[in-house]
Design a protein that fits this description.
Order of helices and strands: HHH
Distance between the termini: 46 Å
Strand content: under 5%
Largest sheet: none
Helix content: over 70%
Length: 48
């Protein structure tokens, strides 16, 4: 098994753990209740 395979296995295990704690629908609900993301494009345009 390569190092990359070990990393992928670890990420998959972490993802499975997180999915067991919070459902996708629950995550979507929490995201909808949170603050809107801020855009960075006006700042980037101002410094370019």
């Amino acid at each position: 098994m390569s190092v990359l395979d070990e990393i992928i296995d670890g990420v998959r295990a972490d993802l499975a753990e997180r999915q067991a704690r919070v459902s996708l629908d629950g995550l979507k609900e929490r995201a909808a209740k949170g603050p809107r993301p801020r855009t960075v494009s006006p700042r980037c345009a101002a410094t370019a």
